């Protein structure tokens, strides 16, 4: 922020103090003097302006909170006032405020109808839908603390994909390392496997490696660059791993995940990775580069938000569940839709089929690999 813009911003804050009589007043004879709050910093951030000030001793801090309306009159309705003893932080948000809202496929369908692999994100600050085609922007990282909206975002993305594509066009593999999320999707026709153990995930990854090899051979034989250009249509494959950070010590698994992130786009094999706490040891090298889209919900601090690649997500308030900083072509603030468990269950029920053999087949392959100590290539 240049000097003149900063001085103008300070002047606006000083005017708010005067308008609300947020100062001490004393007289010396007939002359009246004001002791004003002291402005320590004015910081311009993406989508917001942050003012840090302290009040003079003797001024009741409650007056600042009681007169929040003064700041709203001066700067607009979207303001937050935070206090730490005598020091206050005033956050002034740009533009309109997109409130939390419910997931509704009737609203989403017109937005994603012409995408091959639609990812619904949410609404921007102007209430406009944000979405993209994963075929063009492969691989997605979703991160955020407990209660930030990360889990419901994964749920709404997967549910939207199931509603939009047929089981012949999309095969999904779901890895639920904390056993807390993907039970909803068991027996859904699109879902090939749901696993909860690293050994089961390794079986899936080996299967995807073989599938990738077959698809690569088909591209070579037909002299084309992408599976969409093959004479016979192949289904897209989506691997979604919840709490991928729990796998960081399993180098073999993470190496295959990184390999899929490198070659998957042309082969029609895509990743969605989510984690509660960003981990630099997981998000390093090629994997981080290949996760071309990032959704950063509330993070603990700027270090964590930088790991995700969504600076500003550390400033999201606990009261702003579902708010994220999204990195697609540029950083943007987005409000994700809320899809609760019970509603998701009702939506998914019509897509469920009997599939008793699924769990047994995974267990058999897992045991086979453990007995021989080697995985098929």
UniProtKB/TrEMBL annotation:
GO cellular-component term (any): membrane
The answer to keyword Transit peptide applying to this record is no
The segment(s) forming the FtsK domain are 127-306
Task: Please report the name of this protein according to its UniProt entry.
Answer: DNA segregation ATPase FtsK/SpoIIIE, S-DNA-T family
Query: Pfam families recorded for this chain?
Result: FtsK_SpoIIIE
Q: Where is this gene product found?
A: Membrane
Q: What InterPro entries is this protein classified in? A: FtsK/SpoIIIE/SftA (IPR050206), FtsK_dom (IPR002543), P-loop_NTPase (IPR027417)
**Positions of transmembrane segments:** none
Specify which residues bind ATP according to the UniProt entry for this protein.
Answer: 144-151
Q: Which organism is it from?
A: Alteribacillus persepolensis
Report the GO molecular function annotations.
Answer: ATP binding; DNA binding
Please report the record's description of how this protein sits within the membrane. Answer: Multi-pass membrane protein
Keywords annotated in UniProt: ATP-binding, Nucleotide-binding
């Amino acid at each position: 922020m240049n000097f003149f813009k900063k001085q103008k911003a300070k002047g606006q804050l000083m005017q708010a103090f005067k308008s609300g009589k947020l100062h001490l007043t004393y007289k010396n004879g007939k002359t009246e003097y004001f002791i004003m709050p002291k402005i320590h910093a004015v910081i311009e951030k993406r989508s917001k302006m942050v003012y840090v000030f302290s009040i003079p001793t003797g001024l009741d801090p409650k007056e600042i909170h009681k007169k929040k309306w003064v700041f709203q009159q001066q700067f607009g309705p979207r303001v937050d006032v935070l206090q730490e003893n005598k020091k206050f932080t005033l956050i002034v948000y740009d533009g309109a405020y997109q409130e939390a809202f419910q997931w509704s496929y009737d609203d989403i369908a017109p937005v994603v109808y012409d995408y091959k692999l639609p990812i619904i994100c949410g609404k921007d600050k102007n209430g406009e839908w944000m979405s993209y085609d994963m075929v063009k922007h492969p691989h997605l990282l979703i991160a955020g603390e407990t209660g930030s909206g990360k889990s419901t975002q994964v749920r709404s993305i997967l549910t939207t994909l199931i509603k939009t594509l047929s089981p012949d066009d999309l095969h999904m593999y779901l890895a639920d390392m904390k056993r807390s999320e993907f039970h909803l999707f068991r027996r859904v026709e699109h879902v090939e496997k749901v696993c909860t153990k690293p050994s089961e995930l390794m079986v899936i990854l080996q299967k995807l490696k073989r599938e990738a090899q077959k698809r690569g051979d088909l591209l070579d034989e037909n002299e084309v660059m992408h599976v969409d250009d093959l004479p016979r249509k192949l289904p897209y494959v989506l691997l979604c791993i919840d709490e991928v950070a729990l796998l960081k010590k399993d180098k073999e698994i993470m190496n295959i995940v990184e390999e899929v992130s490198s070659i998957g786009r042309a082969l029609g094999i895509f990743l969605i990775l989510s984690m509660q706490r960003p981990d630099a040891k997981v998000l390093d090298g090629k994997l981080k580069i290949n996760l071309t889209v990032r959704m950063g919900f509330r993070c603990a601090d700027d270090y964590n938000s930088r790991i995700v690649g969504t600076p500003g997500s550390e400033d999201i308030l606990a009261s702003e569940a579902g708010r994220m900083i999204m990195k697609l072509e540029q950083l943007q603030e987005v409000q994700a839709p809320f899809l609760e468990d019970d509603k998701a269950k009702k939506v998914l029920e019509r897509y469920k089929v009997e599939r008793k053999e699924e769990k047994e087949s995974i267990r058999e392959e897992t045991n086979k690999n453990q007995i021989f100590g080697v995985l098929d290539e």
